[in-house]
Amino acid sequence: MQTSYSAHPDNAFAGMVADISAADIVSKICNVRQLFSVAVTTEYNSEIFTVTINGNAYAYTSDTNGTKAEIAAGIKALIDAGDDDVTVTLFTTSETDDSFYIEPTSYDADELAVTITNPSNGVLTLTELIAYGQTIPFGSVVCEDERASAGSQGKREGVRLPRLAADVTTLGKTQGIAIADTSKVAEAAGYVAGEGVPVLKKGRVWVHVEDVASVALGGLVYVRRVAGAGESLGAIRAVDDSSDTDVLPYQQCHFTGQKITALGLAIIELDL
């Protein structure tokens, strides 16, 4: 994998190391895989909430005083006890505690088909956050992923895109920045499942910044772990975006102030 970069701004691109001689780079495996978010947006009693995975229906009936959180946990319990090779994770934000993620257990799983069936009153919403075959973009923040390919023993060598606060804020969970393979930049935007990913843990690197105009010398680095339309998990910001981002809590992780506003690029310095 080529890691010889020019730091000249005219040639800058996301994931380009600014000073390769001072960089600490480790090799990981891309564990990106499909990711669905399911939210229980309305709590109704004695209603049936159904999530179907690859044709297997998981129907949860709420009790006479069921809460949204109970419904989410009830659906998770049914899926956990089922035959589908998926992982279900309940998650909490500052606004809700009634959502969960569905993803394949291994990164090399076949494509999942997930649907929802709404009850007569209650409402479920389904969002595909990561599509089948999606990549880890160059210059994205990546976090540790303990589940690797089926049968693989190198479970702690994998990385994926962040989606929980702990993925960004926990020392050791955040692994660093996925730097670019210069041999792929012209033809690909990132790494697909199963590919090797060079991760910068210490050094200076060009990254795409959503709000590059706000980049300032010494500014904090915020990481997107909730993505809406036109946004990407693991993307970097200079200013917090409510509950959708978290700051990398390390003394040596900040913007250097050098940026190319026209390209949306800036340099961050990190030491993880």
Overview of this protein structure:
It is a single chain. This protein is mainly beta and about 270 residues long. It folds into two domains: about 10-30 and about 135-270, no CATH class; about 35-130, Immunoglobulin-like, CATH 2.60.40. The chain has helices at about 70-80, 165-170; strands at about 25-30, 35-40, 50-55, 55-60, 85-90, 100-105, 115, 125-130, 135, 140-145, 160, 175-180, 190, 195-210, 220-225, 235, 245, 255-260, 265-270. The chain has a five-stranded mixed β-barrel. A four-stranded antiparallel sheet has the order 5-6-2-8, with helices on one face. A three-stranded antiparallel sheet has the order 4-3-7, covered by helices on one side. Strand 3 and strand 4 form a beta hairpin. Mean pLDDT is about 85; it is low at about 1-5.
Indicate the topology.
Elements: E1 24-30, E2 35-40, E3 48-53, E4 56-61, H1 68-80, E5 86-91, E6 99-104, E7 114-117, E8 124-130, E9 136-137, E10 141-145, E11 158-160, H2 165-169, E12 174-178, E13 190-191, E14 196-208, E15 222-224, E16 236-237, E17 245-247, E18 254-260, E19 265-271
Parallel strand pairs: 1-11
Antiparallel strand pairs: 1-14, 2-6, 2-8, 3-4, 3-7, 5-6, 9-13, 10-11, 10-12, 12-14, 14-19, 15-16, 15-17, 18-19
